[in-house]
Amino acid sequence: MTSATTRAARENRATHTEGRSSEELRELVSHWGAELELAPAESIIEWAAATFGERFCITSSMGDAVLAHLATKVVPGIDVVFLDTGYHFVETIGTRDAVEATMDVTLLTITPVQSVAEQDATEGKDLFRTDPDRCCALRKVAPLQDALSGYDAWATGLRRAETSNRVIAPVIGWDAKKQKVKVSPIARWSDEQVEAYIAEHGVLVNPLVYDGYPSIGCAPCTRRVAPGEDARSGRWAGTSKTECGIHM
User: Fold this and answer.
1) What is the pLDDT of residues 167-195, one digit of tens each?
2) For residue 44, which of 121, 154, 175 has the smallest C-alpha distance?
3) Reduced to 3 states, what is the DSSP secondary structure of residue 88?
């Protein structure tokens, strides 16, 4: 996309506040999905910003700030949604705070309806251990659903290289559960491409990544990964669970 298109995206973001119907959103996905499949990440973000204006945001789990860095090139001040589950590593909260302090973003921290203590009282202590799927549903999936209610489209850092379950992740897709357009600008990026981008631009990275945690979730459900293990093997180790439910 041209610089003129980038300027238009910024202007549109400031004025475009009306939401589209599900039918209109699905039509956009049908038309643009194949068109943008091989486009650079910045162009994909430019398209989303120009198309959806203020009804477009990005989400981040704060493993790194690659997606936020890409987005701020196109849309300074873009909304960045972060889910604070109440179970995060202190390093993850620190990364969130650093992103907010050093990058041109509007950081929105979203919390579940219940605190951890309240959930323990109503669901039983340590639900993450007794029923991890329900814990994720209450502390991740439902809060994100609510947080996205004012948006037509959201961008994620989802990459096909991360796990076999994500191989078919489209760059522009339709999230039927959320009735939103799901944008994955770096879906085609390899691990090497991510590392090269971080090194070239000095992008913030959660320090746990360099301490044996290539995939970072809630502290009780994440362990270090041994050399040679799959990058996501430290998530919900010892169970058949592989996803929190946000991308399913």
Assistant:
1) 568 999 999 999 999 999 999 999 999 99
2) 154
3) coil
